[in-house]
Amino acid sequence: MKKRIVIFIVALAFMAGAFFIPQNVQATSIYNGVDVYEYSKISDYQQLKNSGVSVVIQKASEGMTYNDSLLSYRASMLPQYGFKVGYYHFATNNGQPVAQAQHFLNQIQGLHMDTILWLDIENQGSWSKQQAIDFTNKFIGYVQDRGYKIGIYTGLSFYYEYLSGNIGNVPIWLASYGKQPQQYSDTASWQYTDRGSISGMIGGVDMDYFNDSIFSGAVSTKEFTTLQKQTYALQYQLNNDYNAKLLCDGIAGKNTLNALQGIKPFITKGHRSHVVEWLQQKLVMYGYLKEGSYTSMVYDEPTFQAVTNLQKNWGRSTDGILGLDTWSIFLNN
Q1: What is the predicted pLDDT for the residue at 33?
Q2: Helices then strands, each counted (H, E), the chain
Q3: Are residues 94 and 155 in the same domain?
Q4: Does residue 264 share a domain with residue 188?
Q5: CA distance 253 to 324
Q6: 27: buried, middle or exposed (CB in 10 Å: 19+, 13-18, 0-12)?
Q7: How many other C-beta atoms can be found within 10 angstroms of the C-beta atom of residue 98?
Q8: d(CA 62, CA 160)
């Protein structure tokens, strides 16, 4: 997308033109695609089509006033070469989701479209969690009330930290460079690189694997339980902070337990990581830790005391050390 996403993963290096092959793809139709905006350089539409790209998602608008200068031109050109076409709006945090939705719909009114519409919401530093949730729900609600189907594009980190479980049941399209999202391909489309190289375009290209939901707007009923989502998030942060190389599947199996045992010596007072932040969120949920009483991501004194209180109530050794006997509480409740 136009503005790059801060995605907290250790990405694999992509050589120019590399084509990342998805693993464990489910039995569903997958469409090769690209997403573009006015500074994306399509040099030859026929070459692009011949390269195997079948879907192009074009930026339409941003905020309340910005319009992509190539929107009308590409909306006319792309169907002539047999591409399936869709449009996205880039959200800005101005507190006016309905006005932005109105602006978006005004720009795409009357244009040929084959896919559902897309809201692009990203950049963690620009949003609080509640702002992101409120904006997304109001934006998609307004668009749906006008008879359109819509999905959400965002980064994997933003989705799990801000939106998962807090927005309407719409198709999702996740950016994750070098790491296949667990949700692909049953419940999500996947932007797998922003540095692709392909015939018919000049420079780095956003490249995607789309599933059928981009046309139907239908969402798979397959979904994680709340506990599986939490475990998935923990696995994700273990990979992020400690390069654990776990399969993020929401299941606390042998490899996940080994990774937790491996980081036991590190999580002492003063240690800082996203895993500690995950731990703090669980302690808040259990009622052992109060919001605002601790330093986020830091295993500080209030967090240590909360862990010892938890251990006491569950009959564990009250030492504040995160061994597997203590982790089992967090993983099973």
Answers
A1: 97
A2: 11, 11
A3: yes
A4: no
A5: 12
A6: exposed
A7: 13
A8: 23
Model's pTM, two decimal places?
0.63
In terms of domains, do 138 and 193 share one? yes
Angle between helices 97-108 and 129-145 (to 10 degrees): 40
131: helix, strand or coil: helix
Calpha distance 215→238 (Å, rounded): 35
**Chain segment 90-107, per-residue pLDDT in tens:** 999 999 999 999 999 999
Last residue of a domain, one of 171, 187, 216: 216
Among 216, 235, 263, where does a domain finish? 216
Question: What pLDDT, on the 0 to 100 scale, is given for residue 13?
Answer: 28
Considering Cα of 7, then 8, then 9, then 14, what sign does the dihedral take? positive
The β-bridge partners of 205 are 196
Residue 123, pLDDT score:
86
d(CA 166, CA 75): 33
> Quick one: tokens of 315?
């009959």
Cβ atoms within 10 Å of 250's Cβ, excluding its own: 18
**CA-based nearest residue to 250, from 172, 193, 187, 306:** 187
Question: Do 239 and 110 lie in a common domain?
Answer: no
| 172 and 210 Cβ atoms separated by less than 8 Å | no
Q: Are residues 193 and 250 in the same domain?
A: no
Which residues, other chains included, contact 82 with Cβ-Cβ below 8 Å and sequence gap of 6+? 49, 54
**Could you identify the residue written with the tokens 């959200």?**
91
Residue-range definition of the domain harbouring residue 306? 226-332
Residue 23 lies in a domain: no
What's the chain's length in residues? 333
List pLDDT tens digits, range 267-315.
999 999 999 999 999 999 999 999 899 999 999 999 999 999 999 999 9
Give every residue of the chain whose pLDDT is below 50, as ranges: 2-27
